[in-house]
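User: tokens in, sequence out, please.
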């Protein structure tokens, strides 16, 4: 299961460009018709001027500006310059080394930077500790930069999740739900608890997972109505795994028109990476959702359910589903063989 780093905790203002535009000494732009590129140039010039005046935070702002634009090499250069004075720069540099953004992957250095943050007594690092702890849990879970240890991963994620604190790491809360759903650490009651906490705090990933748990009675009494509510809302928010299960639900209820319409929308996505980036859901579960929708669309084409029968197109989609996720395709093929779908 490929995990993603916890992003730097965002300010209420959102992007760094917007944050800069609200500073009292930032050049006035409200009455001008500037393009995004123009604003970037103005911000860069403004920050470089502040840096010359000795403003350390301006280095971080400039690095973050580059980071948000995907100019990772330039971003890392700025973060490295001030990582000893600016904890946020240290955090971002750690993420970049671990994930290989703008540099070669250096998992050990990424882990060291995160360890410095979680062990720091500085008040300025307090808002970063939960995110850094999540990333340390990720390192132990993946076994990169440290020796693999599920127990240490769990320990760091529990710290980062902080009993469901909405200001703690949302990724850690959701990941604990996934962790307790997967062998050899299965504890579905704990999984349901953590997905509930994460969902209540806004996790799109966990909202879809909760829908599936309600649907099959995993860790909670089966509740189809609650399942459909979770799946529909998560699907509307872009959770592809929830969308795939919603296609399955429509098919099982013989709502073939709805199943085909939704499946077509899912199958039309030709760039899964864009879906993952847009939703911040786990890539493996996003792929599972697409594979489910692909298989069910193939089945509808095969049988001519709410769509013109086309055996050739069906075979192509069956094959595509298997290429996307062989396990999902095999499970659905088993159900097809035994007449369940």
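Assistant: Sequence out:
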């Amino acid at each position: 299961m490929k995990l993603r780093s916890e992003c730097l905790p965002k300010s209420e203002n959102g992007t760094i460009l917007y944050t800069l535009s609200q500073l009292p000494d930032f050049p006035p732009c409200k009455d001008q018709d500037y393009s995004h590129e123009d604003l970037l140039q103005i911000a860069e010039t403004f920050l470089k001027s502040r840096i010359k005046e000795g403003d350390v935070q301006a280095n971080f702002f400039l690095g973050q500006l580059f980071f948000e634009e995907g100019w990772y090499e330039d971003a890392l250069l700025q973060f490295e310059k001030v990582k000893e004075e600016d904890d946020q720069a240290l955090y971002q540099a750690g993420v970049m080394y671990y994930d290989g953004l703008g540099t070669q992957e250096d998992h050990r250095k990424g882990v060291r930077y995160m360890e410095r943050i979680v062990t720091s007594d500085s008040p300025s690092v307090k808002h970063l500790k939960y995110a850094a702890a999540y990333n340390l849990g990720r390192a132990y879970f993946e076994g990169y930069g440290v020796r693999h240890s599920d127990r240490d991963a769990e320990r760091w994620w529990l710290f980062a999740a902080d009993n469901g604190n909405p200001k703690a790491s949302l990724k850690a809360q959701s990941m604990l739900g996934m962790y307790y759903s997967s062998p050899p650490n299965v504890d579905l009651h704990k999984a349901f608890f953590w997905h509930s906490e994460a969902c209540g705090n806004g996790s799109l990933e966990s909202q879809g997972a909760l829908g599936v748990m309600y649907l099959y009675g995993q860790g909670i009494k089966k509740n189809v109505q609650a399942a459909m509510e979770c799946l529909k809302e998560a699907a509307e928010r872009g959770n592809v795994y929830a969308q795939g299960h919603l296609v399955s639900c429509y098919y099982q209820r013989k709502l073939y028109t709805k199943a085909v319409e939704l499946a077509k929308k899912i199958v039309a996505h030709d760039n899964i990476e864009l879906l993952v980036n847009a939703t911040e859901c786990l890539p493996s579960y996003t792929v599972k959702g697409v594979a489910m929708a692909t298989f069910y669309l193939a089945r509808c084409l095969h049988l001519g359910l709410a769509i013109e029968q086309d055996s050739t197109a069906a075979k192509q989609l069956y094959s595509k589903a298997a290429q996307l996720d062989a396990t999902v395709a095999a499970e659905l093929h088993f159900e097809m063989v035994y007449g369940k779908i």
